[in-house]
Specification:
The complex is a heterodimer. Chain A is an alpha/beta fold. Helix content of chain A is about 35%, strand content about 25%. Chain A has one domain (about 5-250): Rossmann fold (3-Layer(aba) Sandwich). Chain A is built from ten helices and ten strands. The termini of chain A are far apart. By secondary structure, chain B is mostly helical. Chain B has helices at about 15-55, 60-65, 75-105, 110-125, 130-145, 150-175, 180-185, 190-220, 225-230, 255-265, 270-300; strands at about 65, 70-75. The chains are: A alpha/beta, B mainly alpha. The interface of A and B includes residues 91, 101 and 159 of A.
């Protein structure tokens, strides 16, 4: 662990798909153990930013990335073990994806991929992660049934449990609530508040209210550029630094 | 809302509704008739074949040798020959085809080289079997010096079925949603771990179906084996399961059917039909097994 309070440092990050540039050289830093929200309209580059963080841009042939991203001091372009990097940066996709295997296997998948085989350790991880994701009580009696057979909200929590199973230092949530109901959303938000004691959370969201409720700091991304980045109290106040932030937050443009 | 009388007219049957209903009925009947028209010839063919073949059909016909210059007796050497050719050709083509398809679908980047491979696969699948036959003759019989043999014929059939196996396997792999793969990559799984845990278990039934459909193709083709290793007549032990070695020539059902139908005068009438029934029956048996396997694995498929 580095001593710095910055866990993610991004400098001059540019990302292009083919000739279309979607991130135009953005720089920011994220503190350890904060909830960092990224808001912005569709096509503003939020999801692309997350893809850069765990280097899943590698899977998009046309993607070219420049600039530097440091996770806990390590430049991610130079990490030898990209799979280890992805385990340090947990990722939850917008639509819940239960893998077509049992609930237990869904959560045990990542630890198994990194070579863990001991039944007892796996049992512990499965129970801990499902508990953290507020799903354990609902599924503890049917761990061998299919992950894909769960309801949408349960699958989303299963996805979160899976992302926690490899003990990430950073958890990225990409619009996790678009496919689930408000009650479940609130339960997951409570879970996130609990998790922040241990890990850093990056929350990409379309729900301005959600960012306001949860985030310590909020970044407003628009067309691949940072319009404003600051403490949530200021970004969501009546007098943010940039007029466009006020307009977006209050639904005047977008 | 202004209503026209005591009973509302809003849900009354309009001329437009009646027209669409008629069109819908006509469409249903036309499509149904076409489906029936497709089944009818199949039943007709099978019934007719069975009827004509009846006098010869029986266990004896299967395990006996052709006698009196193919005018009587059975088809054992041809049956076993076809078994040999199909098994060996698929044993060669299936692993290569499946592994190549996995590479093309899961690993290959979209560059000119892989596009070239794709193009080659598609075009190879469309090459007429007689051209494959000529290729097999040049490549395996002469250049590789395998001679006219089961080996040459099987390899020729393998080359012929390979591109179709690649194409059908890729189809099966591509039917697994990308979201599953991304979910695996996001937790730090390698491509191979992803393929093993998620992609293969959910595409295996489709892959097997594609391979087994090639059984009927390999069993039915005459041209490729005629050029490379199938012969008019070869004596073997009656009922012997392993009469041939790889370097031998062999008889085959498709070739035998051609021979007894057109090349030999005064053949007992039911013999060609019975041969056709055996060919058809074995292929249908294999296909039925494939369907059973598919149903079994489909039940284990999990989304």
């Amino acid at each position: 662990m580095g001593g710095s309070s910055r866990i993610v440092e991004v400098e001059g990050l540019r990302l292009a798909y083919g000739i279309k540039e979607v991130l135009h050289g953005i720089s920011f830093a994220i503190d350890r153990n904060e909830i960092f929200a990224v808001i912005g309209p569709a096509q503003s580059g939020k999801t692309s930013l997350l893809r850069c963080l765990n280097r899943t841009t590698d899977f998009i042939p046309s993607a070219t990335v420049s600039g530097s991203i440091r996770v806990d001091g390590d430049d991610i372009r130079r990490v030898k073990d990209v799979f280890g990097l992805r385990r340090r940066v947990g990722m939850v996709a917008p639509l819940p994806v239960g893998l077509p295997m049992s609930i237990y296997d869904n959560v045990a998948f990542a630890p198994r991929c990194s070579g863990m085989t001991a039944k007892r350790e796996l049992d512990d991880i499965v129970e801990r992660c499902l508990t953290q994701a507020a799903l354990w009580d609902e599924v503890k009696d049917r761990l061998s049934s299919l992950g894909t057979a769960l309801s949408g909200g349960q699958q989303q929590r299963l996805t979160i449990a899976r992302a926690l199973s490899h003990q990430p230092e950073i958890l990225c949530l990409d619009e996790f609530s678009i496919a689930i109901d408000p009650v479940t959303t609130m339960r997951i938000e409570d879970v996130l508040k609990g998790l922040r004691r241990e890990i850093t959370i990056i929350l990409v969201t379309n729900l301005v209210q959600q960012a306001r409720r949860l985030a310590d700091r909020t970044m407003f991304l628009w067309n691949g550029e940072i319009v404003e980045l600051g403490p949530s109290e200021i970004v969501f106040s009546d007098h943010p630094a940039d007029r466009r932030t006020y307009d977006y937050v209050n639904g005047i443009f977008g | 809302m202004a209503s026209t009388g005591p009973t509302t007219q809003r849900f009354a049957r309009t001329a437009q509704a009646a027209r669409s209903e008629r069109a819908q009925k006509v469409a249903k009947w036309v499509f149904g008739a076409m489906a029936l028209a497709m089944v009818a010839p199949l039943i007709g063919i099978v019934t007719y074949l069975l009827y004509r073949a009846w006098p010869s059909l029986g266990w004896e016909f299967l395990v006996d040798l052709p006698r009196k210059g193919m005018r009587e007796g059975g088809i054992w050497p041809a049956f076993v020959g076809t078994l040999y050719l199909v098994t060996i050709s698929l044993a060669v083509a299936a692993p290569i085809g499946v592994l190549a398809a996995i590479y093309l679908n899961e690993y290959a980047r979209d560059n000119w080289f892989n596009r070239l491979i794709n193009l080659a696969v598609i075009n190879l699948a469309g090459v007429p079997s007689i051209v494959h036959a000529l290729f097999g003759l040049g490549a395996f019989v002469y250049a590789a010096q395998f001679g006219f043999s089961i080996l040459s014929a099987s390899l020729t059939l393998a080359i012929m079925t390979l591109p179709v196996i690649i194409a059908s396997t890729r189809e099966a792999l591509a039917s697994v949603p990308r979201a599953f793969r991304e979910a695996c990559w996001n937790v730090g799984a390698t491509r191979w771990q992803t393929i093993r845990a998620v992609v293969l278990p959910n595409s295996i039934s489709g892959i097997l179906t594609g391979i087994i459909l090639q059984v009927s193709r390999a069993a039915g083709e005459t041209a490729p084996i005629m050029f490379t290793g199938a012969v008019f007549y070869k004596a073997v032990q009656r009922g012997d399961l392993f009469p041939y070695r790889l370097g031998d020539q062999c008889m085959a059902l498709s070739m035998h059917l051609y021979t007894v139908s057109t090349q030999v005068p005064n053949v007992k009438e039911s013999i060609p039909y019975a041969t056709a029934i055996v060919l058809l029956g074995s292929v249908l048996l294999v296909n039925a097994t494939a369907i059973a396997a598919r149903v079994f694995m489909r039940r284990r498929k999990r989304w």
